[in-house]
Specification:
Four copies of one chain form a homotetramer. Chain A has about 325 residues and is an alpha/beta fold. Chain A has three domains: about 1-85 and about 175-185, Periplasmic binding protein-like II (D-Maltodextrin-Binding Protein, domain 2, 3-Layer(aba) Sandwich); about 90-170, D-Maltodextrin-Binding Protein, domain 2 (3-Layer(aba) Sandwich); about 185-314, Alpha-Beta Plaits (2-Layer Sandwich), CATH 3.30.70. The first copy, chain A, has nine helices and 15 strands. In chain A, the strands form three sheets. In chain A, strands 1, 2, 3, 4, 5 and 11 form a six-stranded mixed beta sheet that branches. In chain A, strands 8-7-9-6-10 form a five-stranded mixed beta sheet. Chains A and D meet through strand 4, helix 3, helix 7 and strand 13 of A and strand 4, helix 3, helix 7 and strand 13 of D. Chains A, B, C, D: One of its GO terms (molecular function) is prephenate dehydratase activity.
């Protein structure tokens, strides 16, 4: 039964699985790894699963384009949760392997820049070869194809390996943000520390079109947290924009902004409003304080004043 | 009975009276001249009259500050109509006076710049002295105090004078805009070629505050037609802003703009939405075409889309 | 010899004369009253005088349109100084007149709103009639035409009158700002607390044109202190803009703003940069602190960086 | 000798090599493949090569983050040329292999989304496994590890394979943009159809900071063609912005924009101005016409006018 099934970017032992397991409801769901972000999301689209957890942004590498583009196109999906996971790698080896024995290492291409300095310092002569995923790298080590794999420490048990070194991360504060996407339904409830995601296409490519788009946010005091040009597939230089802002679709300033975008853009895809997450169970950083005059109370007061003006009672 | 009484900036024979008489309902009203704009408006505030016609802008002299300031402060009034009157002066004299006899001329101070060139060309030696109004100048000519007065040709009969020269106006296209102000009630009906007037106070004097105010208009594609810094009376350098824009308070783009102003400004005084007038019975110049995405239909469609997003049906 | 002659808005005994006498150099100049702002300024244009002092703004009445429009058109003039004068009226009477004797009062029309409340409280039955200037009102009292005139206390001696009541002013902080205009030459030296005045015509009347104009200021962190739509004389609804901003033309942020305006507007008339004045000898209120990144040092550093980029040394 | 050596993202047979060979000077250079974008660029930084060609953007996948981030950090490099290459894949096999024989296919992960539909239609049962590069995939086919590889047709000869199917591309107009990066020196000469690239850090994370940044472009009529939030490495939610705009650093509107950014941002890295390329030898699409008032002639005229104002000759 699909309602009890969540897919995720697999295979087993990935950081995505670890992120998924931080969700309380994961304990009561069947967790099904998929070979790719599209496969994980298509399982939701097709009704095979209720939701899919996929990475969307990494504090070192930036946006995960496969996820951004899958959410931007095809059958609509919506984001209901985000999970923030601190990323640290373990160097997984077959039991008994020592550092000096390691001639080849593997891992997901995204892992490489995050362990590059550690490699240069500790295994300067080891040859890196990319694997399809960190977990897949672990499997290839198990099979003897490589001597060591960078992966989450939690993957060691799954693949019968040992963590030789742990907590490896070139960048401090390396984190990955994952989103739980499902079929469109009512957005997650407003918490007061929310994020809203969308994809916006511009009406045309006139100079200043992007400024007009952003003015819809700034005129209502809505803070952008993310913007990225994404290709529309119609050729080089044709973009849509993946945008995140602070606030919830039921916040009036956000609602008015979304309507403003809808009016000036040929296409706006609402991708959900959901609680902003934090890593390690800390409360989410408070967003920027809303600009004066942009609270729901301000909107209500202004609407009441307008009604009085229209009735001649102002 | 006040409902049948309109006041206007008198005395009899002013351009204001002529403007008032262009309104069809003037035929069935008691028209009462007042000595000043404040007096005309206070008669409305006090219930003595239903409405007052006062000049608000002259195409040569600019805004009529007495009117702007009276509407900005005190008991609120609202504008329901505007009248545009082409201004041309007649040189009024006692019967028998010839051009060569004229040593002194009078008229309202506002008339002077509009006849200055004509005076220099035709009566270079005549001495100008200001009168309290053009009509008052005519009265003073009648009484023999001056030889000639500049006033509307229609004032000749009232004061027993003759128009010696007519159609005098230094500036082509000299026009005065008058407004009919009454106590607050429902605004005039939307016509599609409307103007909305307001006075706006800024929250504080931070750099960019004026830009934020104007962004409320530009973000919704609402076209400003008039802006003037007006002193608040709190000292030099402290201003409020007299603003006119195209559109009607029931146009959604205007309504949202007004609410936006109300949210960011400590005080907004709505002065009415009313049909834009034209001189000489011509249809009013069409305003600028609304920016794409700012029609009422666009607003409705965007609101419906938002509702679908909030319901998970987008 | 014109270099030693200053004109001013007369007649003798006006506040303008009082303002002019606050300038140290006035002591060594021949001060010549003129009957109007245009006459005072035309004397400068014609070479008859070196400079003219005229009122430009009143904290109660707003801009002095005659001055704004004279400076906006015709042979260019430039502002080199401003003078701020606290305005309080004296009620001038012929020696021996008592309050109870006063049936008629006069004064400049601009004086009326500033003494209206005082009149209502102390001389409710007196009839007001406007004079061409406050000083002219004093003269008419001297001649017996009126019983009392509102004017500056300093005008009493000139016209052989007595100040019966002094320090009359409905509004607290009533001040008038005067400017000293001369033929174009190098602007006044930068003091760090300067004002720059200009008149700007828009390229066309497209929606947002005013916003584009103001963006030239906001993009460089230049603070507007005054904006007023002024008729261009080409018909109702056609305006140019009288604008003051903080800063001096030699401040780089102001210079770049002026060049930006010049590029997008068909006409910009620079009216001068000059020290901001204060009333009663107090130092001028410091303007808003410049936005970070807009000091001359920031401009110089950015230009040097650009040069390094262009030379491949950044 | 390094001046005669260019590196590129290898191995031999990649699209990058094909793009590099479209440059006339490539014929007289030693072309050295490197295993990664960082390796190719570091060879330039270290003086081993004069320049490196690396992919920066794909019309299907978007920005190449390895390149964006390498250029944003570390020892500065500058872009002198761009090359646009139409991307179509060939299915390379060992001689004699038929479509029905193919059980496993490989290629660079970026190739996968561009051939996914073709695969689903023609080889629905083939298993995909990623290779480190398209060329590396070809090598692995040569070695017998996979049955077929997606790569450029030009790679067939290098690896002793046969193109079984050619011109495979799911997306029409698939193109990749490559940049030739060298050590900082004078920018490429202005051609009139140029692009300028930069990375910009914001002063702080206040709401509207991004708007202020973009206003520097819009206020001077400079058209953005690309913007992407890139992580700064200081933690989730901390971004710099990779930005491309139309125009050349010696275009005055671009120069003033860059200086404006430099003034308000704590860090701006100029990455070069260079001719906009087109695919297949077509002339580059003309950029948007510059906004009126933003040509070099307009800037020069405005500067001359400013000088006249400052000299009192305006």
């Amino acid at each position: 039964m699909s309602a009890s099934r969540y897919t995720y970017l697999g295979p087993e032992g990935t950081f995505t699985e670890a992120a998924l397991r931080t969700l309380p409801e994961a304990a009561t769901r069947e967790l099904v790894p998929k070979v790719s972000v599209p496969a994980a999301l298509d399982a939701v689209r097709g009704g095979e699963a209720a939701a899919a957890l996929v990475p969307i942004e990494n504090s070192v590498e930036g946006g995960v384009t496969a996820t951004l583009d899958e959410l931007a196109t095809g059958t609509p999906l919506m984001i209901y949760r985000e999970v923030l996971l601190r990323i640290a790698f373990a160097l997984l080896v077959r039991p008994g392997t020592k550092l000096g024995d390691i001639k080849t290492v593997t891992g997901h291409p995204v892992a490489q820049p995050q362990v590059r300095k550690w490699l240069a310092a500790h295994l300067p002569d080891a040859r890196w070869e990319s694997a399809a995923s960190n977990a897949d790298g672990a499997r290839l080590v198990r099979e003897g194809r490589y001597d060591a794999a960078f992966a989450g420490e939690f993957a060691a048990a799954t693949y019968g390996l040992e963590p030789l070194v742990t907590d490896i991360h070139d960048a401090r504060n390396a984190e990955t943000r994952f989103v739980l996407a499902g079929r469109p339904a009512r957005p997650a409830a407003r918490t007061g520390a929310d994020r809203t995601s969308m994809v916006v296409w511009l009406r045309d490519d006139h100079p200043g079109a992007l400024m007009e788009l952003l003015q819809e946010f700034s005129a209502r005091g809505v803070n952008l947290t993310w913007i990225e040009s994404r290709p529309t597939g119609e050729g080089m230089g044709r973009y849509c924009f993946s945008i995140d802002c602070e606030g919830h679709i039921t916040d009036r300033r956000v609602a008015e902004t979304l309507m403003g975008l809808k009016r000036i853009c040929p296409n706006v895809r609402f991708l959900g409003s959901y609680p902003r997450a934090s890593a390690d169970g800390e409360p989410p950083t408070a967003g920027a304080a809303p600009r004066p005059g942009t609270s729901d109370a301000d909107f209500v007061a202004a609407a009441e004043w307008l009604a009085r003006c229209q009735d001649g009672r102002a």
